[in-house]
């Protein structure tokens, strides 16, 4: 699955992607009342533990994530920042049981989506683009793990402005 | 959906909520500003325009209901969504009666938030498009606040535009309620005097001496009770337009006084000795037959000739029933603004009733009936029963409806069945909206799918079937 994600990230962002397996979890991210992990705390943990700037860091976790106002999120990223996180928890709860191939595709889509936010991209109006908003698994399945032409040009524009 | 023009104001006393909601909505392309309390929200509402207000219900100080109330005072069309905990759903529901759009129970499902935002954005887009359409419609069919597409009224507009540019006295004739004062105001607005005052007076409402004093003013002590100098309507209208309504009702003495002013452009205040010169354009109006009044010796012939340099005849509403849908749209929009609530139009049954009625009170009566309907209506669409038209005026059979439809210019043939009436009415609506099915559906008070089904059923063309109406620009 990680290789699948890496391939798509490299393709979408033309960036070098390093894989690292770390079994640690941020202790303060668990919210006992909600029985979920705070995605914000996850992002802070990734920034502390991840590679030094200017590298971006993406975490993939099997824990269910939330932001305070929403019941759950598939992932979260700092808009135009360095960190992004994606949870597999709600991506494999489909009925019938999701095949590993389908799950890997969903995770890749959401990873490209969250890293896209970290690169400063907003939600895209195209339901097929990885940057299309996906409040449900149904929406994730409608997307592809690639950026549409418009998002690619927005990304190139941003990269030009920020000097790469 | 990212609509960059949509500006959202978030009000919540919890910083973490403001931060997470703001971050989430920004990724959707919204412009978001977050404030921690009601007071800051009111300040933000006073400074700038917002499309959506997302406010927490329970907050210290000013709560969500008070924020809603203040917001609606400042911006009646603002979409307000309340964020609430399970414990306060009842309050949120009652808040919707105060004008809230909807409520979200914290924490909300991402799909629920997404759907609500999408719905709001598309409704606002629709409202913007409708506003553009309405403006286009008014450009094509309007003369300031007078709207009409009837050929007779188009000729009136043409004459009024030319007359407005001159300085000549204008006599507006028409039955009661045909909009004589609205026309006078439109002429003033179109004239080079538009920046000057528009002063209106009804000559029928006052006794001779009071009207004389109202028109020309009086000096202090000129009669019992004249404790101070009073400026009359002629002086007040200097540089602008004086509208003399019900001119056919003035006494012979005042007819003579008025004739002198029209000839000399000078007059005396009651009890005054110095002549006063004014630059006033007179627009007079009456529902009386002045020629007949002249023949009966009740009106001065020389005054009539002074007044009727340009005559504008306003046809009664029963002779221009094709204007009713246009007037309904115009008035429901006005009433919505006045009543600070959304009124989307009238149902198809209500429109049939309006088209079938004879309108003895003309446009004024139509507006009053719609106002009553808007007050009584439970939802955003005014239903036939809400209009309170006398049962005799609302036909129960197809023949009655047909008579109305025929008078509306649809056909001379009396339709035989209700289906005929429906077919004819839909055809008229489609012609009225230039084939715009969404707009026609809204006016008919049905959804688009139902309208499409009816178009198929009656094999109608979406464009102008009558060949007599123009597509709005």
Automatic annotation (TrEMBL), chain A:
Keywords per UniProt: Hydrolase, Metal-binding, Metalloprotease, Protease, Zinc
Presence of keyword Cell inner membrane: no
Cofactor: Zn(2+)
Annotated Pfam families: Peptidase_M54
InterPro entries registered for this protein in UniProt: MetalloPept_cat_dom_sf (IPR024079), Pept_M54_archaemetzincn (IPR012962), Pept_M54_archaemetzncn_arc/bac (IPR012091)
Keyword Hydrolase tagged: yes
PANTHER family xref list: ARCHAEMETZINCIN, ARCHAEMETZINCIN-2
Name listed for the protein in its UniProt record: Peptidase
UniProtKB/TrEMBL annotation, chain B:
Protein name (Swiss-Prot/TrEMBL): Fis family transcriptional regulator
Keywords annotated in UniProt: ATP-binding, DNA-binding, Nucleotide-binding, Phosphoprotein, Transcription, Transcription regulation
Residue numbers carrying 4-aspartylphosphate: 56
Keyword Isomerase: no
Limits of the Sigma-54 factor interaction domain: 146-375
Pfam family, one: AAA_lid_14
Superkingdom of origin organism: Bacteria
Family matches, as InterPro entries: AAA+_ATPase (IPR003593), AAA_lid_NorR (IPR058031), CheY-like_superfamily (IPR011006), Homeodomain-like_sf (IPR009057), HTH_Fis (IPR002197), P-loop_NTPase (IPR027417), Sig_transdc_resp-reg_receiver (IPR001789), Sigma_54_int (IPR002078)
SMART domains noted in UniProt: AAA, REC
Lineage, uppermost ranks: Bacteria, Pseudomonadati, Myxococcota, Myxococcia, Myxococcales
KW Phosphoprotein (keyword) present: yes
Response regulatory domain sequence ranges: 7-121
């Amino acid at each position: 699955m990680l290789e699948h994600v890496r391939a798509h990230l490299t393709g979408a962002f033309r960036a070098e992607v390093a894989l690292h397996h770390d079994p640690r979890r941020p202790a303060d991210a668990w919210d006992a009342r909600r029985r979920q992990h705070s995605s914000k705390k996850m992002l802070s943990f990734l920034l502390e533990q991840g590679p030094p700037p200017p590298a971006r860091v993406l975490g993939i976790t099997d824990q269910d994530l939330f932001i305070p106002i929403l019941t759950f999120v598939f992932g979260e990223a700092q808009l135009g920042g360095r960190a992004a996180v994606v949870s597999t928890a709600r991506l494999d709860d489909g009925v019938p049981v999701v095949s590993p191939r389908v799950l890997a595709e969903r995770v890749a889509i959401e990873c490209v989506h969250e890293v896209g936010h970290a690169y400063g991209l907003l939600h895209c109006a195209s339901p097929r683009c990885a940057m299309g908003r996906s409040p449900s698994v149904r929406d994730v399945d409608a997307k592809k793990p690639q950026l549409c032409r418009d998002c690619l040009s927005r990304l190139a524009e941003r990269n030009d402005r920020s000097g790469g | 959906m990212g609509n960059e023009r949509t500006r959202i104001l978030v009000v919540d006393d919890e910083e973490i909520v403001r931060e997470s909601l703001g971050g989430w909505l920004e990724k959707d392309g919204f412009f978001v500003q977050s404030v921690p309390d009601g007071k800051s929200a009111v300040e933000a509402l006073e400074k700038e325009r917002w499309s959506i207000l997302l406010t927490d219900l329970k907050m210290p100080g000013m709560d969500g209901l008070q924020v809603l109330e203040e917001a609606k005072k400042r911006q009646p069309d603002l979409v307000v969504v309340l964020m609430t905990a399970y414990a306060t759903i009842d309050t949120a529901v009652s808040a919707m009666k105060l004008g809230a759009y909807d409520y979200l129970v914290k924490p909300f499902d991402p799909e629920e938030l997404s759907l609500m935002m999408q719905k709001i954005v598309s409704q606002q887009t629709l409202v913007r498009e409708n506003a553009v359409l309405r403006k286009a419609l008014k450009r094509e069919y309007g003369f300031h606040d007078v709207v009409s597409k009837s050929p007779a009224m188009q000729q009136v507009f043409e004459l009024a535009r030319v007359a407005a540019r001159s300085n000549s006295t204008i006599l507006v004739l028409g039955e009661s309620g045909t909009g004589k004062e609205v026309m006078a105001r439109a002429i003033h607005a179109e004239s080079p005097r538009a920046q000057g005052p528009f002063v209106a007076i009804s000559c029928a409402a006052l006794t001779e001496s009071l009207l004389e004093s109202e028109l020309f003013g009086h000096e202090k002590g000129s009669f019992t009770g004249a404790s101070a100098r009073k400026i009359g309507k002629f002086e007040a209208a200097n540089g602008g337009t004086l509208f003399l309504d019900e001119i056919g009702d003035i006494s012979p003495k005042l007819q003579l006084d008025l004739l002198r002013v029209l000839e000399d452009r000078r007059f005396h205040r009651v009890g005054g000795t110095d002549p006063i010169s004014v630059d006033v354009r007179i627009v007079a109006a009456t529902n009386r037959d002045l020629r007949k009044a002249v023949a009966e010796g009740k009106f001065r012939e020389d005054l009539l000739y002074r007044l009727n340099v340009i005559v504008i005849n306003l046809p009664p509403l029963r002779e221009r029933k094709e204007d009713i849908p246009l007037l309904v749209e115009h008035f429901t929009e006005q009433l919505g603004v006045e009543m600070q609530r959304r009124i989307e139009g009238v149902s198809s049954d209500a429109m049939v009733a309006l088209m079938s009625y004879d309108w003895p009170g003309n446009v004024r009566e139509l507006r009053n009936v719609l106002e009553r309907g808007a007050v009584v209506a439970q939802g955003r669409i005014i239903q036939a029963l809400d209009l309170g038209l006398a049962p005799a005026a609302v036909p129960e059979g197809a023949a009655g409806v047909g008579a109305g439809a025929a008078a509306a210019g649809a056909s001379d043939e009396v339709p035989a069945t209700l289906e005929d009436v429906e077919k004819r009415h839909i055809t008229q609506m489609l012609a009225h909206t230039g084939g715009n099915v969404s707009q026609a559906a809204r006016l008919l008070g049905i959804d688009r799918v139902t309208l499409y089904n009816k178009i198929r059923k009656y094999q109608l063309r979406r464009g102008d079937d009558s060949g007599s109406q123009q597509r709005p620009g």
